[in-house]
Fold:
Amino acid sequence: MIADAHCHLWRRWPYPTTPPPGAATPNALADEMAASGVDRAFVVAAAIGGEDARTQNLRNNDDVAEVVREHPAAFRMFADVDSRWSPTYHRPGAAERLADEIARTGAHGFTHYLGDFDDGWFDTASAAEFFATAESLGLVASVHAPPAWHASLGRLAARHPELTLLLHHQGLAGTDEEVEGLTALAAHPRIAVKVSGFRYVSATTPPYADVRPRLERMARAFGADRLAWGSDWPVSTQHHSFADAIAFADDAFAFFDASERDRVFGGTMLALYPWRS
Structure:
């Protein structure tokens, strides 16, 4: 079974670019999944789009939760909580907002997009309460964490040993030095990495050949049980197809055996975030 660990759905196309065919609708995603043999998808909510009403997605959590309720066999979600575009980003009351969003959406995980630079928030009492709440609720934390945050993530994981942290897009590690910092996080058994968004960590065009040797280093450090493929649809369609997102990862993991590849392409994600009815 193939499961997509990282994709998005939006009511409005949130970027100042021409939207792809079908934009970011559930039907368009379902069609892509069916054509590529993908059975399930985890939608990462993202309330983006700026101040323009034509691109805003302020209620993306509600929109995605509705899709999950309507298509329970195909989709699950990570609720967007206090991400960097939010007016409540790293403001007091984060733990309460997390609990409220989880109760309202029924999600078993949340996403938190961090800024490019570490602002020290992980070491605050507010963050401690936020992640303790996530830990107590048994949530998966799907985190967009640029390399500047990786050392702080390691300390966070040590303080919250029961919290599952799932890093977006190879931890956004695009250099050998950044990969070294990322692989150090493999010492924390509940940190996993999404094999997604190759374009974010590549200096080349598709098929992003420069990613492969760094990805192998990550794979050897984390193992197949802590790697999960994601398409980054529909953002990725500005650069390559949904099918290509599978093909790039499949080619990069040629050194894995069949069982390990099965875990990367679905088993890992379904173990981290159980598909509850």
